[in-house]
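Dear support,

I submitted the protein below through the web form. The confirmation email said the job was done, but the results page showed an empty box. After a refresh the structure appeared. I'm attaching both so you can tell me whether what I see now is the final result or a partial one.
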Amino acid sequence: MSLSFSRTDITQTSQAERGTMTVFPLTKGKRQQKLALGDGDGVIQTIGVKNDERVSVFKTNPGPTPVSSLVLGQARTQTDKLFASCGNVVKGVNKKGKEFFKFTTNLTEPIAKLHVDNVTIWAAGEYVTNQYVNCEDAHYYAADDKVNDMAVAPVIIPDEKNPILACADRFIRILQGGELFYEVATPGACTVVEHCAANDANRAKEAEANPGMKMDKRAKAREVLYGTEQGVVGQLFLDGEKPRRGWVIDPSSSSTTGGSRAGVSALHGDCDLTGDGVNDVVVGRDDGSLEVYTLDENGQPRKVFEKNLGESIQTLASGRVTTGFNEILVHTFSGKVIAFRPGADDRTIDGFAMGEQPTEHQMKMADDLANRRADQLRAEIESLKADVKQARALYGNKAENLVAAGGAQRVLDKFQLDPDTACYRLTLEAPYPIFSVSVASTVPLDLLDVENDEAMCARSEPDVTSGMAALATYRMQEGKSRVEIRLRVIEGRAGSARAFIVPSTQPKTCAEKMYEIKSLCLHRRSLNRHGDEALAARPMNAMRISGNFSFDDVHAWISRCLNEIPNRVDAPPPGGEIVYDFESALMGTLLRVSAQEGDATFWSDSVTPLALLKEFIGREATNLKLQVRFNFDLADGTPGHFARLLHPKLHDNRELTTRARIVEALKEIKQQEETDEFFDDDQKEMLRDEAAIKSRLKEQPRELDYLIGVAKDFFVDWHRFKGVNVKHLLPALDSALRAKDYSLERLSDILESGSV
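What the results page shows now:
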């Protein structure tokens, strides 16, 4: 089963933050609802659609700070009142646009998420969540890591609402007052959390209608959907006892879902788009993917629709705005407001291809309506062109003596490790077309070409005088406002990378983004803790550090070397420890970190991470004048194990040229014979992967140098731990790995013996 949708572009705002669109309840006697919007200019507006024309109800003047959250009040007397957060200020606006409430909070962080119920306000900043009652501070909670989203629902007892926080340290936290009640682990940094109030109400009605039936414990729980930075969407049932898990959508492991693996930026689970009485799940991702899932008879999600909008989706909602039918409403980063109505491309009366075909008269009326709308849009475009021409002429008269001082608008950015390619993906998205992006780094980087030829890359030689070890400029195709750049980094070279985004619009300004590159930047937190059996199956080397350092000291050292470490962690009780597990995206080796006051132990089936940690911690301890002692326990089978992990990558890279030649020959044979029926499955797969093979072939020399560099680092580190200096053998090792007689046995022998 799949759904088809028709798209209607409703309006355009300035750039939008997450959670800045909401739908007014349907009023008595009306078939359509009003839509409220907030934007980056600080404007709050309400619009409706009548006879396929947009109608403005009200629009406030621009403010000094962007609207970061826009919600309706939850009390019965507040359902037609809007509450918006701008910086650390909460203000209320009635349905006619008149401000009736303004409250300046004591938060030092901008409010990112807001919830209002009668006289109670919940406000979540970057790390802090506050609850205010009658504009007085009632409860306060500081999270260990960044709070990405917040929902509010009565989880513990029916008459008291609890904040539900989506945190960057892979936890969803449920609060009671200002205290943590319990937390739920998620498979990745949690970015979105959504309370499905309509589903809760449906389950409660079902329980009342069947009082004698034994109900599932989840019937009285609160249903919550969450999304992660890794693209996973999951279902939770929360109550006062414990969390219960439901279905999970994991694009990386499920062959049935497929599609985008981008991070989840918006969720909506309270809309029935198919009319089957079960609410569907709508997922918005930060690469612009919009997905719709229905639930089958077993309650498992199944994808029925997918479309990429080309820019990050900030907010999802549902309602009857453009027509009397339920539709998906989308607010994108650049400010586009779009409605998707299911089944509307099938010209049937009910819109779901299940009714009678419309009459000729009805079809003619629909065509006339569409033509009239097209004429209105053309007239609007001509009017806008005239306004732009006039504004451009006015600017041209004044621009000679003006200097751009305001800077560029906000740029959405993400610098994330891709575990499949062991490369970092730098994603930049602007609310305007991008002219160029320049990337500069203080450490060596391999700046790869942009996929799909969306940008031309010009690389420059490193500039030693300015400290730039890598520099490249990407010239964008006209009209593109989003770019994804791949960077191959080298572990052990800590530094920073900066991106400079120049818009196509005038006057020319530049936005700068900076990213930290850590020593062990290719290691990522494991979704699950390594089991004892997995560790026992590998030759694990151990490094123990002891001394007069505090827990805060060792936690700071670990967080400066490895990603995905919470910014703030309470020290474990005496005799306790904090444990983190990591996996190398490049080699697949494991790393375990155990820390407590005065003691830390690191285990790995490779010695390079241990060598890098030893170098960094030793240098930092010396700067702090702390005494530390290092003890090592090396596993003899490590060189052979490392060789078995590295060999497939080296072999695949060396065979790439041969595969490219085979593909060219297969193409020629297929062209001559006009069929590929006589090819075996491997040959057909090669033909299907032709584009990927050619793309990798361009990067093959640099990739081979990179892999040989990894082998050299292990070679030096292993024998340094053994007390032998083998740096003079590196040129010979390089030649041996490039030689025609290279083999796994040769690689293993060199790494273990220390002789080439």
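Response: this is the final, complete result; the empty box was a page-load delay. Confidence is low (pLDDT under 50) at residues 345-355.
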